[in-house]
Amino acid sequence: MTKASLSILPAFILTACAAAQVARAADIEIIPDVVYGHKDGLALTFDVLKPKTGSNGAAVIFMVSGGWVSLYVPPQQMAGRFQDLLDKGFTVIPVRHGSSPKYVIPEIVADVRQAVRFIRHNAGRWGIDANRLGVHGGSAGGHLSLVLGTASDNGDPAAKQEFLRESDRVASVVAYFAPVDLRELARGANPPPQEGGTPYRFPALNFDKEKAADYSPIVHVSPDDPPTLLIHGDKDPLVPVSNSHRIHEAFQQNKVKSQVIILEGAGHGFRGDDASRANAAMVSWFEQTLLSASPTSRP
Fold first, then answer.
1. pTM for this one?
2. What stretches in the chain show pLDDT beneath 50?
3. Which domains, ranges and CATH numbers included, belong to the chain?
């Protein structure tokens, strides 16, 4: 991932939402704006999109994040984006985090960790199995998905709120064109402007460089990581395809179930046939890893 090319990072979430079709309302139960926490007096929320019939008990948590900005999309439109998963019986939970520029990556990661804990603690409310939670995202959302996959924990047993005592571990990951190493990208809390006085784009990266390893998935790969599918275009000008190759190699070295799919000629943000192929692979991966008799989980 190169600093010079960071300016198009939100393309994934914008493209996905613009291309989404409205879901079939009669087939889906939508529970909007579930509050999983508060920050600076504001609510942190997610939606629950659940098939009215044929639910398989597994859930896919979607990281709503492009450039570490979490844009609001009406849940009916978001359901259209994930119609294939819903048709297979998955519950889909789009999670919104505190956005850049107000918040930086350590704070954003804390939000999505909290969301997973809340979902696990309340899974029975939505008829889902707390041990069958997958996570998916692209670009910044892919990065957050990989952080959850590689660097999760068992919760804080001393936390006052019961749900914060829960693990934030997931049982499966699908990440599209994700940056995996922030050690060369973190700029420090107050970076000087670029040449000419232009502020840096993506201020989520304006955090202490010494903490960057904590939020770099490549650093935390270990044998107990969940199955992980990586999908990347070989012409990505923003997040080089080497990111997916590097972390896939690390997964292989640690004997973690992993697959990398390289889309020839694809850039940053999949469209047309590339989007269809990636979506089909994502659905298939979650079927393989979340619907087995003994899903990989780390309670």
1. 0.90
2. 2-11, 13-20, 296-299
3. 3-290 (3.40.50.1820)
